[in-house]
């Protein structure tokens, strides 16, 4: 048993920021504990595919991938953007106007529906301001959009447009979301800072900036950093806190700062003795975590050296929106990492699913998911134009005991 002043539980962004704050306040007797072998938590990456020029794999992000809202002249700057610049993260502006729309028959031009949604959204914004300032009863985003005359109903192209505009941002549908707080969330990022989204493709990994910040106050091989340590129980009283790991080791501290995922806390992965007070449990259980799953493919180029998604009207297109004729959110948004400014020539193409589709994909086999996505791509581009992938991979966040990204 080792006794210290503060135990910081979790070495993700929140845990490292907490430890840095302690350091800046001249509190140095702290220990950081994390189950993973790296700093960063859900800002996590892996190797994927093969770079044809070097023969080495690429680095792709499994979790956080963008800096959302950068900053405007004379206005505040997003602190994540400040750190991204400080540590020189390679990133590229995601141009959401660079989009091609598809249905089950191939290219189908319904991009104008995105403008229709945004017209309705402006009404929803105004109404949300009234609800908030006058302390009125909140309502679902679906209610607000319907009042704004956006009613997709059975129109699957409208459903796809709505998914692009809303679900992709929040990992929930408008039916499941607050009108007021969806607007507050959006405005806090994009109106406070800027409307830019920059995709991080740095081959050191997005978490490089978190590691770099950590090592401004930690030393190499710092004994205060305990990685690969699985906390299983926490007991606490007025006299202090005892943290026990799965290997039987323990740390005693006067105080503990817990930065574990809400999903971990909701699933009782760590036992608390005594149980957390009811008011705290209510806060934990009342917070919903959406699941956001990126499914990666690496494809070979054609004989001409291009990729099948580059055969459309603009070969530099970044985004590809698919409207399934039956199911909303069925492999809806694809992204090209071969586009200019990203991992050019990589042949990496990935699709994102959220919420129920994430759970479904994460519960089934790789082969089943691969077959489903390839069927979509072959309906978009033609069965003869989409080859078998060179590589395929996706994370299963909702089944990770240390994360449990789930509802």
From TrEMBL:
Ranges where the Amine oxidase domain occurs: 13-403
Lineage: superkingdom: Eukaryota
SUPFAM superfamilies: FAD-linked reductases, C-terminal domain (SSF54373), FAD/NAD(P)-binding domain (SSF51905)
Example of a GO MF term: oxidoreductase activity
Organism: Lachnellula suecica
Record Pfam families: Amino_oxidase
Native organism taxonomy: Eukaryota, Fungi, Dikarya, Ascomycota, Pezizomycotina
Gene3D superfamilies per record: 3.90.660.10, FAD/NAD(P)-binding domain
Protein name: Polyamine oxidase
Gene Ontology BP annotations: polyamine catabolic process
């Amino acid at each position: 048993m080792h006794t210290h002043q503060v135990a910081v539980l979790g070495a993700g962004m929140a845990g490292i920021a907490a430890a840095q704050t302690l350091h800046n306040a001249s509190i140095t007797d702290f220990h950081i504990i994390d189950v993973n072998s790296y700093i960063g938590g859900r800002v996590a990456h892996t190797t994927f595919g093969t770079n044809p020029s070097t023969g080495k794999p690429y680095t792709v992000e499994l979790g956080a991938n963008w800096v959302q809202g950068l900053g405007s002249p004379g206005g505040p700057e997003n602190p994540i953007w400040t750190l991204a610049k400080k540590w020189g993260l390679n990133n590229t502006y995601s141009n959401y106007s660079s989009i091609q729309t598809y249905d089950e028959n191939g290219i189908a031009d319904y991009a104008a529906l995105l403008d229709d949604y945004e017209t309705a959204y402006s009404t929803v914004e105004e109404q949300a301001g009234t609800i908030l300032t006058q302390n009125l009863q909140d309502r679902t985003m679906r209610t607000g959009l319907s009042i704004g005359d956006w009613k997709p109903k059975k129109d699957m192209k409208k459903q796809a447009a709505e998914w692009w505009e809303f679900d992709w941002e929040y990992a929930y549908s408008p039916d499941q979301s607050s009108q007021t707080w969806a607007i507050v969330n959006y405005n806090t990022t994009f109106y406070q800072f800027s409307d830019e989204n920059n995709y991080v493709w740095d081959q050191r990994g997005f978490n490089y900036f978190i590691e770099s910040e950590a090592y401004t106050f930690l030393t190499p091989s710092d004994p205060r950093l305990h990685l690969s340590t699985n906390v299983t129980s926490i007991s606490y009283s007025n006299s202090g806190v005892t943290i026990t790991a799965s290997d039987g080791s323990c740390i005693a501290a006067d105080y503990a700062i817990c930065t574990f995922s809400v999903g971990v806390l909701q699933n009782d992965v760590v036992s608390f003795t005594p149980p957390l007070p009811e008011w705290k449990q209510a806060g934990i259980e009342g917070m919903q975590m959406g699941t956001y799953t990126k499914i990666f493919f690496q494809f070979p180029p054609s004989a001409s050296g291009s990729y099948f998604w580059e055969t459309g009207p603009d070969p530099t297109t970044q985004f590809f929106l698919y409207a399934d004729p039956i199911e909303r959110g069925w492999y809806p948004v694809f992204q090209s990492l071969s586009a200019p400014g990203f991992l050019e020539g990589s042949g990496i193409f990935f699709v994102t699913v959220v919420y129920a589709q994430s759970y479904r994909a994460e519960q089934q086999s790789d082969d089943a998911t691969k077959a489903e996505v390839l069927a979509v791509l072959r309906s978009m581009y033609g069965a003869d134009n989409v080859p078998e992938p060179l590589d395929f991979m996706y994370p299963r966040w909702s089944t990770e005991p240390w994360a449990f990204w789930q509802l």
